[in-house]
Amino acid sequence: MIPIIKPSFGIEEEKTVLEIIRSGQITRGRWTIKFKNAFRDYIGAGFCHPVCSGTSALYISLKAIGINKKEDIVIVPAFSFMATIDAVILAGGTPVVVDVGEDYCIDVNKLEEAIEKYSPKAVIPVHLFGQPADMDKIKELCKEKDVIILEDSAQSHGAEYRGKKTGVLGDISAFSFYASKNVAMGEGGAILTSNPDLDEKISNWIEFGNHPALNLRITEFQAGIGYWQLQKLEKNNEKRRKIAYLYNKEFENLPALEIPKEFEGRKHVYHIYALRHPKRDEIIEKLIQKGIGARIYYEYTLHQLRDAEHLDCSFAEQLAKDIFAIPIHPALTDNEINYIIDTVKEIVKNI
Ligand SMILES: Cc1ncc(COP(=O)(O)O)c(C=O)c1O
Predict the structure, then answer these.
(1) Residue 183 CB less than 6 A away from ligand 1
(2) Domains of the chain in sequence order
(3) pLDDT of residue 249
(4) Quick one: which of 12, 67, 96, 227 could link to 72 by a disulfide (CB 3.0–4.6 Å)?
(5) Atom of ligand 1 nearest to the CA of 176
(6) 256, exposed or middle or buried, with CB in 10 Å at 0-12, 13-18, 19+?
(7) pLDDT tens digits, residue range 131-157?
(8) Between the CA of residue 10 and those of 7, 15, 109, 185, 295, what are the distances in Å?
(9) Against a cut of 0.90, is the pTM above it?
């Protein structure tokens, strides 16, 4: 089976894990500092706090911006991984869900409507599947009404919007380093900001001392693996982009199949390569029979999943019915890529 997800580890990660075991310093050591500084500088933020998951990064970001009570409204897109909405609920705020657009990220016209209607404290644009949300428009709307922007950058390591990396396009951002991510540690996350006041608030929540805190630290093993993953990120993202280009070229004229679009001024890093087809379930079944690990991302929408307040989200509801993903990880060989292309073409033409 060609897996949908496969981390690309090499000799550097192996040597570093062994070195950490032999050193006896397995947490709060030099690799954690090395990773923290390298990731901060790569994204271009002022401060970086590694934590144990993307979900905890979102949760702490929300606490740092003051989401505590049900009057604290946070706008989230209808189509994302469930942690995007769960973090808001766990922080004590009220999520309001709006539809996504053709880029599968938050629909800026619907966001405008939701800001007018709900006077939210914050919005969480998700750079879904690795494509940056329409940040110029989002920033313009949020600036006008003093809405804080928390970027959910869990899927967009290295993606760019008009030349700037996702993670520095709002007030604060949350990354995930889960096993499938473009930078993978197994489990892990990071909170980034360039605002010293938010930086202090984040520290209060995750460092024991002045304020009740949570231990969300990563170990040296995770940091060491993450450091080397980061060194390979640009090369691996280029490989993902090259595969996406090949897939798009081969699939663009297949009947009823919709391929992903990369929007002007945005660099997509294809964390997930998502296709749409009305017979999605049958296609997945056939791909799996042929040894290709196709999967649905996502078969739910966030308002339906958590019974949340929402505007009309009919596009996201449609996506949940017809979207699916095929493997795009950088460990794919040329033979595997060609096999995936030929198999998808054959199945879609005959379905
Ligand atoms: C968009 C999005 N947000 C948040 C998360 C949560 O990250 P984690 O699984 O590291 O808690 C993920 C990843 O799984 C994600 O894809």
Answers:
(1) no
(2) 11-231 (3.40.640.10), 233-350 (3.90.1150.10)
(3) 98
(4) 67
(5) 10
(6) exposed
(7) 999 999 999 999 999 999 999 999 999
(8) 10, 9, 44, 13, 26
(9) yes
